[in-house]
Amino acid sequence: MTLETWCRHQLGRFAGWGKTRIWQGVALKLLATACFACLGAIIRLNTPALHPFQIVFLRNLFGFLTLSPLVLRVGIRSLRTAKMDFYLLRSAISTVGMLLSFWAASLLPLAEATALSFVQLLFASLMAVLVLGERMSHYRWMALGLGFAGAWVMLRPGFRELSLGVGLALAAAALFAWVTIVLKILSRTESSLTITAYMGLLQTPLSFLATVWVWTWPSPEQWLWMMAMGLLGSIGQVALTQAYKMAELTMLVPLDFSRLLWASLIGFWVLAEIPDGWTWLGGALIFAGATFATYGEARLRMMATQARTGGV
């Protein structure tokens, strides 16, 4: 059984809404954003005891080790590809982006670091139109606008000065926008397992080059956190890649804003950061935009189908 077949089988267990590809893509995207929000909390919990560069390396290492049994089960043939140049490009850009974003996450509050990462969504949406030839419907533009409005409501005067953490987060966002485009190109022909496996296979040695200069031995508890990070990161990457197979990039982009809500909830439960009313208002705007886009796209597709079939 391939990874794609397994994902579809698991999603098929959800009644009603899980029967269409658009909702399957939405579910996988939300799962990915929840996993990535958890990574931010783990970074905060383990710095400054561990350098952010070291955390990047261990995240890639344990992420690859987590997927190794599945790769071996499917067979080494799952790593065969004719697009190694895209994998190398994606890994190089992603490694630098991870180093910068993990460093920023160690310097900024969880919600602020998450909100700053949303700059990549605007870049990714525009590049999807220019590079991939995707169309931005009015539903998607409105969803993106509501998402940015929700993030701004949560932060309010958050962008008050260009600190080191803010600068690092913005630079990482610009790099991850390009990673998103390359990932979408790969997802057209490559399996989710292959894409995620090459991420760990290539990014582990690349990130080690930055880690070797700041290495310190983790404690037993920190080793457990790093293993959890690898597991969550792999689940998030597989879910994200599979989501891109099921829906267009500009359709899924607004759902990235849910990471801010996850980050607020995790900050409350794990870091004792209590979200205020503005946070919940912003979260409501974010999910309103995502839901509006999902229903709007479903309606457009239904109308297109009816037009082709004469309303039958």
The biggest beta sheet reads: none
- Count of helices? 13
Provide the β-strand percentage band: under 5%
User: pLDDT below 50 for ≥5 consecutive residues: which ranges?
Assistant: 13-19
Q: Briefly note the structural class of the backbone.
A: mainly alpha
Explain what the structure shows.
With 312 residues, the protein is an all-alpha fold. It has one domain (3-125, 161-273). It has 13 helices and no strands. Helix 12 (258-269) packs antiparallel against helix 13. The radius of gyration is 19 Å and the shape is globular. The protein starts with a helix and ends with a helix.
Please summarize what this structure is.
It contains 13 helices and no strands. It is an all-alpha fold and 312 residues long.
Tag the structure with descriptive keywords:
single chain, 312 residues, mainly alpha, 13 helices, 77% helix, globular
